[in-house]
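Async update (no meeting this week)

Hi team, since we skipped the sync, here's where things stand on the single-chain job. The sequence we agreed to prioritize is pasted below, unchanged from the tracker. I ran it this morning and attached the output directly underneath so nobody has to dig for it. Comments welcome in thread, and please keep replies under the output.
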Amino acid sequence: MGVFPDSSAPSAVADGLSFAPPSKAPLAIVDLGSNSARVVVVEHPIPGVIEVVAEERLDLRLATELDEYSRLSERGIATTIDAVGEFAAFAREAGADSIRVVATAAIRSARNRAELLARVHAELGLAIEVLDGSEEAEYAATGALHGLPIRSGVIVDIGGGSTEVARVIAGMIVGAWSFPLGALSASAEWLTEDPPTRKQIKAMRRMVAETLASCAPSGLAEGEELVATGGSARTLARLAQRQAPYPIPRTHGYSLDRDTLRDVGAFLAGHSAIERSAIDGVRAGRADSIVGGAIILEEMMRHLGADRLTVASGGIREGLAMRAFGEPVPQPRLVRAVTVESLLRHYRVWDEDDMEARAIRADTLSPDPIEDPFSETLEAARLASMLRALSDAGIHPVDALLGEDLAGFDHTMLARVAAILHFIEGDKDAARPFLSLLPGSEKRLLRRCAELLA
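Output:
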């Protein structure tokens, strides 16, 4: 569930007002990446909300279809045309009124891309828009930021054929870069043994470090955070989560530290591609590129001086949808408010008067929740109060909270809300795993909020 609130509009939760549904038809985004190709069909059901209603993917691996002269093979052209045709049919079946097709690094670098574009237009009546590197970086950053409570930092998107980086200050993109460091293409060039040798890994690591040193943005400034999106980052996060019991099942919003990333990368490098594809959490189509992706991501962290990063589920497709529907990069607090409203509407438990009463009751926990040093904890209490309405429909609030990719929530905020909900139910044991993700200074306040809301 993707949520993109208009920062200029009042929050429905804050003012007790409901957003009127806009009349915008579903839109399909086809993303022809260097490793995989995807289509998403999105709707704009209420202002501030963009929702994925259908999606599909294919592993085209176009980065491997480029010859030594950077020409896309006939097989690569044919499979791309077939994929676009299949995705277009899928999108129309899902109700999409319009289809936007974009291509990234592999097609961007193909010397014969004009032939592909002409054939797709002639055979399917569709135009492929080839994004340049900076455009790709900006769309990826826009899509990644929509679902995270992060306003300033660096967003990195590791693709199959290139890596895109954008710097964001106060929600505004101020710089965008693209490098020919793709997880699939670099792995094919540098990690030729299976599994790769230490010498090959060291050589690729040196190449990545030199590339970043020569043209990547400078290190993180105080208050800036690092965000990673793309299939490599999400795969590595899934594997890191499974190293020890962890209470939140989704990768979106997960905080991955550099030491853990290094350990996961070393573990993967010690196995062959076939062995990696058998590991739970590693798709077969990513087994031969994930080691390269881990090296690029680790060297990016080293270059930027980042001890940890936050993983985002959104990326280029979500960024394209945001721009298409005219949604700006939002304020995180508004994202969370509208996300919860959308979730409650989905389960048909949204009632204006009831939600207004719940919000007012939660606001009495602090005379000034915006200025309070524990404002995020108190915001979590307000959201927990709203989510309790799900119990009336026989739905467990924590299950609903964790069962969706709710935009605006990192794992810290999810842990706060889940802990409060469990405390309200009197289930201290269920709350304990979530408390382990939070600062000790918050735990007493979380219990107190639950007591006042019960």
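Quick observations from my side:
The two ends are 28 Å apart (CA to CA).
The longest strand covers residues 51-58.
Reply here if anything looks off.
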